[in-house]
Amino acid sequence: MTATPESKPHSKWLDAELKYDSGVYNKHEVVMVRGLGATVWDENGRSYIDCVAGYGVANIGHSHPDVVKAIQEQAGKLMIMPQSVPNDKRAEFLQELVGVLPQGLERVFLCNSGTEAMEAAKKFAITGTGRQRFVSMKRGFSGRSLGALALTWEPKYREPFGDAVDNKNVDFVTYGNIEELRAAVTDQTAAVILEPVQGEGGVRPGTMEFIQEARRITKEKGALLIMDEIQTGFCRTGKMFATEHFGVTPDGMTLAKAMAGGVPIGAFVMTAEVADRMPAGGHGTTFGGNPLSMAAGIAAIRAMKREGMAEQAREKGAYFMERLRAIDSSKIREVRGMGLMIGVELKEKSAPYITALEHDEGVLALQATPLVVRFLPPITITKEQIDSVVDAFTRVLGSVNPRAERQAELAAQAEEKQSE
């Protein structure tokens, strides 16, 4: 457990960020300045065990030395070159990436983020099939651009933008419901898009039967199966890609997050048949495939293979979930996950516990639906750090009383109103 300072020094950096930021993020009252492995430090020198990892980006740990070195070397050579002009690092990265992809996925559209990868996936699916309808999953999350939002189930993400989010060509089905899926996929469906483990939807792994039936149904109907591996890819679930757990090969996968060890990157990978049906100039990107991110990606993927990151995630994830399931608390409904992608569903709102973990225990965690505490640590997290996280979570479960805190907050508001 990391002691909480009695008082926080005034932070000019926090003031500046709050003043100039757009306001779309709810800011934590902390300024992080350094990270190494699964530990990050704030500007006051306090350490935290990071179970957020940049929303699942820092799979190989913060500031992995191989990635740092690759970025430093490449920055002194060449940082930008459009994809219309071939580049040595881009070619090397493509060879490295295709070498770890499921067999048959051998063509790559490079971009800068998961949302961009999903936008590319939609366009390649349309040109690849000549169809325009999509099937997506309830509780699924595909990104926040207008195009990706059309595939995202949660209404709170779509509603502020009204009819600008055009999802009239999207059919949503219950994740895991084969009959609903079978009824939704028709000869007008371009693609079924699903996450092998729903992340934002509460850390819900797909079943073998559902994923395999999705593959069978899409083949039967001439639709594409596109697996969203943006959060699950690159060893997070105990395999290089979560799709490998289910024994299927999709027609395409969206990739991003951990692919370059912390540098912005994204990709839609696909079969040659799908790639060849996109007209030249049908899609593009300015920064995608830049030499700097390519160098980082080469170093990151090689580190994953050399250091056995998939096996580490499998073993550490099993240990983490075993320890979480051993917690004696009536507040826990279920512990579920795959590898080091773990969700603890509570019987009450998770936000107060996540806040207490950070403020009182020096542990960063995420929410996934209002009831779920999500743990996405770097794969480099040690078992000792896992023990510390579980011990901290146990203490928080025993000490936080959200109902009492809410009642106290309401009482304080009423008292303030009366004094006005």
Detailed description of the structure:
- By secondary structure, this protein is of the alpha/beta class.
- It has 2 domains: 12-63 and 309-408, Aspartate Aminotransferase, domain 1; 65-307, Type I PLP-dependent aspartate aminotransferase-like (Major domain) (Aspartate Aminotransferase, domain 2, 3-Layer(aba) Sandwich), CATH 3.40.640.
- It contains 15 helices and 17 strands.
- The chain has helices spanning 12-20, 53-56, 65-75, 88-100, 114-129, 146-149, 155-158, 178-184, 208-221, 272-276, 291-306, 309-325, 351-361, 383-399, 402-419, and strands at 32-36, 39-42, 47-50, 107-111, 133-137, 170-173, 189-194, 197-198, 204-205, 224-228, 252-255, 266-270, 332-338, 341-346, 363-364, 366-367, 372-375.
- A 7-stranded mixed β-sheet has the order 4-12-11-10-7-5-6, with helices on both faces.
- Helix 3 packs antiparallel against helix 11 (291-306).
- The chain is globular and about 55 Å long.
- The two termini are 41 Å apart.
- Its cofactor is pyridoxal 5'-phosphate.
- Pathway: Amino-acid biosynthesis; L-lysine biosynthesis via AAA pathway; L-lysine from L-alpha-aminoadipate (Thermus route): step 4/5.
- Pyridoxal 5'-phosphate binds at residues 114-115, 141, 228-231, 286.
- Its EC number is 2.6.1.118.
- It is found in: Cytoplasm.
